[in-house]
Structure formats: structure tokens, C-alpha cells
């Protein structure tokens, strides 16, 4: 599990995550290959299916417009899979972003915590932690073997380039 930065109370109050405007949103949760195996047909989860680009198929939002992740308990605003949520969800509001052939660590400025703490010591410390973590050989291998999670997100703040190929 990736160490978390954002205090739980921010996430529980915010209705941004896990909800999407479009059924095929680039922001919808994309799974690592090993996660597809562990998520599908897991006892206690709703029926899940994965698209050809390895994303969880979203479901219509029962409380309004748009779509939600099938693992979101919209009433409680909680993830049903929190303890084993996908790598991409653990990483959020940080995102691995592809620009041409370059891989960048970026952050979503729509996250209220990030917006309020952009220049804080805590955020800078966390970015140091995250870049060290993502530069571990094991994590670089994981990203190289799961290119589906390298996506061209728009309107994110560039933090730094990640070199996945270095020895
Ligand atoms: S798996 Fe959990 S954290 Fe990830 S999008 Fe779905 S509900 Fe949100």
C-alpha cells in the first residue's frame, strides 16, 4: 500500500472522487493486470467487469447524473474495497501521465486538499516520498509491465519526469 497523505475527513466530505461525467472517462479506475485477477468474482463485491483497456466498467449514478465506480458506496461515500483498492486509487490525487513518450508524475488540482496545500511542507515531503517510491526498481517494473495506467490526463500539474528505463 502506498502511504497516504490526505486526511480522511477531506475525502469523506468531498464528492469528487470515484464519480465521472462519462462512461468511458479517462479518469475511471484502471487496473493492473494482477488486480484484474484479484477483483473479478471476489466475494462481497458487486459484479464487476473490465473493459478492453482494463478499466472497471462504470455504473449509472443512482443519486444523480453521470457515472460512478461500481465499488463506491455512494450513500456512505466510501470505497467498498478501500483496504485493497487499485494502485491508481491509492496514488490519487497523483497520476502517472503520458506525454508523447515521456512519463510524468502529475497531480490533480481539483482535489481540495491539494488546492489548499499546494505550497505546504507536507505536500513537498510527500512528493519526495512518492518519487522515491516510484523510482524503486520494483515499482518501475510494475509501471513498465502495466502500460494501461500511463494515461494522457488533461489539466493536471506537472511534478517531474519519471525514467522507467534506468537501471
Ligand atoms: S475502487 Fe474505490 S477508490 Fe477506486 S474509484 Fe472505485 S470506489 Fe473509488
Q: What would you call the shape?
A: globular
How much helical structure, as a percent, in the residues? 25-40%
User: Helices and strands, in N-to-C order?
Assistant: HEHEEEEHEEHHHE
Number of helices: 6
- Mean pLDDT level: 91
Share of β-strand residues: 15-25%
**First and last CA, distance:** 24 Å
Number of strands: 8
Rg (CA only): 16 Å
What class would the helix/strand composition place it in? alpha+beta
Write out the strand line-up for the largest beta sheet, numbering strands in chain order: 1-3-2
Q: Major β-sheet, in short?
A: 3 strands, antiparallel
Low-pLDDT segments? none
Counted up, domains total 2
Ligands (ions, cofactors included): iron/sulfur cluster
What would the keywords be for this entry?
single chain, 167 residues, alpha+beta, 2 domains, 3-stranded antiparallel beta sheet, binds iron/sulfur cluster
Amino acid at each position: 500500500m502506498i502511504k497516504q497523505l490526505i486526511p480522511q475527513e477531506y475525502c469523506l466530505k468531498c464528492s469528487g472522487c470515484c464519480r465521472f461525467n462519462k462512461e468511458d472517462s479517462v479518469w475511471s479506475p484502471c487496473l493492473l493486470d494482477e488486480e484484474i485477477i484479484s477483483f473479478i468474482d471476489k466475494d462481497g463485491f458487486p459484479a464487476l467487469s473490465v473493459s478492453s483497456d482494463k478499466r472497471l466498467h462504470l455504473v449509472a449514478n443512482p443519486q444523480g447524473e453521470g457515472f460512478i465506480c461500481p465499488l463506491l458506496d455512494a450513500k456512505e461515500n466510501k470505497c467498498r474495497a478501500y483496504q485493497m483498492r487499485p494502485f491508481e486509487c491509492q496514488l490519487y490525487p497523483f497520476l502517472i501521465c503520458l506525454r508523447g513518450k515521456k512519463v510524468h508524475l502529475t497531480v490533480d488540482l481539483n482535489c481540495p486538499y491539494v488546492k489548499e496545500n499546494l505550497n505546504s511542507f507536507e505536500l513537498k515531503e510527500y512528493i519526495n516520498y512518492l518519487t522515491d517510491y516510484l523510482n524503486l526498481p520494483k515499482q518501475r517494473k510494475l509501471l513498465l509491465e502495466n502500460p494501461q495506467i500511463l494515461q494522457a490526463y488533461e489539466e493536471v500539474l506537472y511534478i517531474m519526469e519519471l525514467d522507467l528505463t534506468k537501471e
